[in-house]
Amino acid sequence: MTISTEALNKLRSIVGQENVLTQPEDVIPYAFDGTAAIKQPAGCVVFPQATRQVAEIIKLANASQIPVVTRGSGTGLSGGSVPVAEGIVLCLVKMDRVLDLDQKNLTLLVEAGVVTQNVADLAATAGLLYPPDPGSMKISTIGGNVAENSGGLRGLKYGVTRDYVMGLEVVLANGKVVWLGSKCVKDVAGYSMKDVFIGSEGTLGVITKVLLKLVPQPAAKRTLLATFARMDAAAETVSAIIAARIIPCTLEFLDRITIQCVEDFAHIGLPLDAEALLLMETDGHPAVVEDEARRMEQIAREHGAASVTLAQSAQEAARLATARRSAFSALARVAPTTILEDATVPRSELARMIRFIQEVGERHGLRIGTFGHMGDGNLHPTFLTDECNHEEMERVERAMKEIFDFAIQLGGTITGEHGIGLAKKAFLPGAIGEGSLDLMRQLKRAWDPDNLLNPGKIFDR
What we know:
single chain; alpha+beta; Uridine Diphospho-n-acetylenolpyruvylglucosamine Reductase, domain 3; Alpha-Beta Plaits; 8-stranded antiparallel sheet; 5-stranded antiparallel sheet; 22% strand
């Protein structure tokens, strides 16, 4: 059904005419997110500026039975914010106020539309750190990070978004506004309701405010870049670093294809014949940092590193880190369509998983560059393809299924940080089992009985 004129007029009365888009040329930019080859225009796009307006919009959607898809900057990589036909896109980017920086309790209260980089910068001005650093942090919003439970390069040492959410304001499917959580470091009063909404991808409620935990800024950091002639040697280096009781803040890798694309893009001086590259960073007390950097360099050399570079300045560290942080941009230049995937395996299975991805690419005649968070087992096989080539896209789909099936076989999972959305819901039953899936369906039916919040994402009712 189409959105009625009456409903559109009510939306305009809630947020103002300038905050409701209905013309095809205006809603098209909101028809997709960062996921390749998935798009669907919405009936309208609405920009609330306060929680009260969000609640009124949800109540109107209930009364008119209009589906609602919440959206931030649209950087998601699983189709989680792709609209529903003739539904409402509830875009929260104008809800971008910083409400409270509490330096006594090390917390920050912000609205959902605040950009993640702004959160990190604000924390830094107070000598504090907001650790989660998704690759899209210069664009993505904190509400989207919470809805997807985003990770990042510092996940090995510091954890993911969930680990820094102390409280949430949420508008439920019936329009009721609730606050979940507190500033208390220890709070076990009843069910941990906020955790249900973290990673729920907008299917259970609309996150409007987030109370974040901050930590002290580490006093020192050192950055190393090591190259290897064998992927197994890089994986063994990672295992040896962890076994040595060193937990780096960053332990990232690139495979040969990605190294070549990054060097062509950024001209860092990477060896084009290297099979693997490791970016290693340690932070903390200066004496500990110096010791850990020295030991990581030694471990890398003992495991056959062809070269190890230890940055001597902040500028050199930034240049070395560019090798990893520019990986997706570098790969995206190679082909018309770049499909960035996400699978996680136990660290002990990393080399085996990476070799399997390479073999799958060769067998299906596909170019796949793999990079990711080797320290926590989270890999990003990236397909360099063309969505207009339907035969090739069929091969991509077959290859993806094999990769996810193998990750599960190794004791892994189908996503470490990108979520399920539309792109991965077919793989979810095999990853978590019917028992877990049934519990999720029961929760969805209880909290959103009319299936109006982001319907069709994660699983089908």
